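User: Could you go from structure to sequence for me? I need the amino acid at each position, not a summary. Structure tokens:
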């Protein structure tokens, strides 16, 4: 008989509302957990939701609900009937909780009350700012949280002559949900060994910092300047071809040189040119776009791939299922409830099949479960701290740049021994993002980005292009519980380290492979930078002003891949815990991105509605936009903005009063969301005029005190100045032997079982732990010296 589903032993009670909680519990249900969704008699608001405004017939559910709620159960109670949940909570393993739920205000169902009454429970809370701190009860939306995080400005996204641009598609909700499921599974590992639950307090502001920005505070403090302070459109970026949109990237000098040759202008290559690549590309953009416009998407992509230039067709809800790569890999499957197309799970396992999704529940279909007799669980441990969930686990981290290291960074922060593998001739690429001249001594140790992504890790250098390096790598693999890698597929295949070969070295190892586009299919060997993944998944399509080409987010593609790979790993660990069996986890970057962009594909397949970019507007709030304020920014530019998003009629009434009830705002037609949406242009004009005469601080003070979701659009390097992040200790002071002391991000979640938080150690120097690790493999000091002489290991770059 096949083994039971990896998470079959877990009962999860879902007391959340909104996309984040629903996606968190979807990931858990997809892994085999029993998820019971608690609903009021009115039902979850997602049952009647459609981002396109499609009509949903009475008695049926919206397509997004059907996608997010597959394999779950539904039990209905009134908000005054919390006692009916007592038996279920006694036998449950975890609760997922959010303030948007109608049950959040019930005194016995607050996180603290739940844990006090059921101390075995893991209680995961998903809130905009966290459960505690000066902003904990402030009004917020996904849009205003993006603004507070610095993610709206991001890595200089958007043209400087327009408003900054947020990442479309409610990305913060999806990313926060993926993070919540990983944090829940980590806490359940601790509960399995200690018998004690805890509160897992996730802040969507902090997940936005982690997913939408690139360690800007660390960069500012170490380099004494921002990583990037100006907005620009990356060229080529998204361009119009003869039959659709295609995206090309030229992020490095080599890629720029190759692009010049590709478009027939090798004379543009000038290593002594005074302009940076971005500026030079901007000058030549008309000619580049003309070359692209004369060719089909397929032709441009084929030629760019031949030159190893990152590229992708720009995917959206209408064309995604037509992509040959997705077709060959079976990326899209039929929804079990309504038959529309949806992305399959973002990872696959070689040793077992995850259970196929079952139909979403009808409202109250499983209410009888509340009276079922189940074995009650009890906490067994009463100590102050229950330790970190990955203590005792050894991880070989064969990753680089952002996607892979962001996955292993969480493992290291939560107690795993993570060994980051590099070589002196092929170091982690983020060491190159140092912001210092290569003539500086130890310049490769001065990268703020490497520092931020690799705290708490160890470093070994091995040149595995040599026979002896490969031998040592194989010996090291035998000592590891987990191997995580994100090379292009051919790298490990060429040295005979595919999964079957790794498994022969250690039978129970879990190998997580994070290729950009998967281990097979036509796009297998495409270069997979974050922006290419965004282009290929629909994330780019929804980002930008509606009258212009889409704009690549340039951020979320990498960390989103990392958190989904971690979820896959945690599910594989649960399988190994119960069976002793290892597995290959294939967690491609593009599959992770398609899952958080799923609403586009679902809306088109279910309703024929193509979701389009709306600038800084969105499907939930009206008005929602960025509004320019008075005053100059820190760079002396007239470029200060606030984000305002009105989700409810009560919030509109509060905003109207806060701005002095001007005549235009008292129009009864604006009292409803539909009326405000219909008059959005006029509201933007009038509200924008009010904001333009005031400072961002004054606007935030007036509106936030009135209960209106509002935020300053901050520069990402100013995150550390936010009092909420300070109160929660999100940044830790870490001292590096070369860089000195600077603020580093911790994790966007607090575990009450470890109130002291994790100890943060500096990122390792190149090869810092060579002797320690190689000695552990049985090598002598003389052996290690020979390796250094033969340049198989080292502590200095070899170029």
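Assistant: Here is the amino acid at each position, in order:
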């Amino acid at each position: 008989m096949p083994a039971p589903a990896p998470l079959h032993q877990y009962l999860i009670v879902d007391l959340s509302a909104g996309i984040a909680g629903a996606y968190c519990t979807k990931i858990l249900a997809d892994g085999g957990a029993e998820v019971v969704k608690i609903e009021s008699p009115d039902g979850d608001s997602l049952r009647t939701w459609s981002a396109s405004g499609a009509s949903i017939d009475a008695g049926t559910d919206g397509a997004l609900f059907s996608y997010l709620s597959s394999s779950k159960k539904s039990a209905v109670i009134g908000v005054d009937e919390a006692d009916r949940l007592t038996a279920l909570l006694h036998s449950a393993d975890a609760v997922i909780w959010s303030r948007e739920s109608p049950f959040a205000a019930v005194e016995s169902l607050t996180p603290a009350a739940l844990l006090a009454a059921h101390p075995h429970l893991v209680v995961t809370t998903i809130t905009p700012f966290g459960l505690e701190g000066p902003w904990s009860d402030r009004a917020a939306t996904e849009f205003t949280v993006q603004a507070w995080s610095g993610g709206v400005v991001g890595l200089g996204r958007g043209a400087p002559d327009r408003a900054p641009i947020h990442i479309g598609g409610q990305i913060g909700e999806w990313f926060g949900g993926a993070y919540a499921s990983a944090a829940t599974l980590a806490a359940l590992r601790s509960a399995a060994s200690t018998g004690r639950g805890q509160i897992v307090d996730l802040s969507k502001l902090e997940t936005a910092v982690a997913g939408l920005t690139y360690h800007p505070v660390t960069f500012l403090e170490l380099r004494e300047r921002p990583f990037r302070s100006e907005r620009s459109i990356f060229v080529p970026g998204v361009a119009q071809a003869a039959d659709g949109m295609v995206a090309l990237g030229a992020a490095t000098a080599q890629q720029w040189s190759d692009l010049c040759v590709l478009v027939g202008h090798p004379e543009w290559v000038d290593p002594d040119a005074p302009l940076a690549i971005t500026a030079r590309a901007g000058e030549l953009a008309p000619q580049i776009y003309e070359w692209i416009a004369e060719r089909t998407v397929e032709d441009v992509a084929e030629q760019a791939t031949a030159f190893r230039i990152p590229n992708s067709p720009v995917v959206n809800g209408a064309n995604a299922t037509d992509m040959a790569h997705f077709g060959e890999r079976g990326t899209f499957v039929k929804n079990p409830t309504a038959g529309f197309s949806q992305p399959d799970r973002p990872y696959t396992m070689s040793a077992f099949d995850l259970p196929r999704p079952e139909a979403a529940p009808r409202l109250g279909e499983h209410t009888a479960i509340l009276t079922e007799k189940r074995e009650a669980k009890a906490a067994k441990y009463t100590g102050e701290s229950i330790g970190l969930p990955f203590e005792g686990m050894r991880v070989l981290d064969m990753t680089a740049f952002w996607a892979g290291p962001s996955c292993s960074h969480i493992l290291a922060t939560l107690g795993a021994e993570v060994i980051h593998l590099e070589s002196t001739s092929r170091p982690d690429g983020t060491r190159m993002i140092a912001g210092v001249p290569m003539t500086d001594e130890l310049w490769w140790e001065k990268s703020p980005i490497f520092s931020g992504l690799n705290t708490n890790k160890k470093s070994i250098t091995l040149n595995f292009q040599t026979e002896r390096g490969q031998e040592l790598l194989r010996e090291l693999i035998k000592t590891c519980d987990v191997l995580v890698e994100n090379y292009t597929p051919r790298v490990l295949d060429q040295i005979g380290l595919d999964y079957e070969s790794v498994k022969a070295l250690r039978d129970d190892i879990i190998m997580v492979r994070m290729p950009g586009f998967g281990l097979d299919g036509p796009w297998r060997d495409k270069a997979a930078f974050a922006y290419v993944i965004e282009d290929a998944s629909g994330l780019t399509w929804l980002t930008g002003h509606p009258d212009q080409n889409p704009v690549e987010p340039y951020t979320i593609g990498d960390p989103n891949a990392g958190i989904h790979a971690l979820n896959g790993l945690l599910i594989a660990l649960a399988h190994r815990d119960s069976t002793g069996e290892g597995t290959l986890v294939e967690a491609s970057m593009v599959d992770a991105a398609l899952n958080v962009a799923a609403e586009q594909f679902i809306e088109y397949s279910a309703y024929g509605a193509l979701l389009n970019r709306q600038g800084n507007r969105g499907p939930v709030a009206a008005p929602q936009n960025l509004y320019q304020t008075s005053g100059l920014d820190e760079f002396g530019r007239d470029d200060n903005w606030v984000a305002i998003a009105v989700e409810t009629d009560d919030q509109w009434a509060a905003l109207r009063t806060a701005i002095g009830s001007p005549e235009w705002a008292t129009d009864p037609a604006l009292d409803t969301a539909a009326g405000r949406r219909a008059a959005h242009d006029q509201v933007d004009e009038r509200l924008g005029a009010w904001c333009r005469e005031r400072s961002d601080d004054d606007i935030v003070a007036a509106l936030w005190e009135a209960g209106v979701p509002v935020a300053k659009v901050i520069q990402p390097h100013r995150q550390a100045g936010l009092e909420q992040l300070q109160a929660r200790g999100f940044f830790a002071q870490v001292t590096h032997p070369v860089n000195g002391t600077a603020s580093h991000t911790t994790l966007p979640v607090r575990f009450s079982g470890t109130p002291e938080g994790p100890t943060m150690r500096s990122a390792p120097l190149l090869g810092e732990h060579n002797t320690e690790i190689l000695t552990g493999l049985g090598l002598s000091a003389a052996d290690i010296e020979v390796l250094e002489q033969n340049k198989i290991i080292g502590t200095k770059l070899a170029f």
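One structural detail worth keeping in mind: The domain at 622-708 is CATH 3.30.1540.10 (formyl-coa transferase, domain 3).
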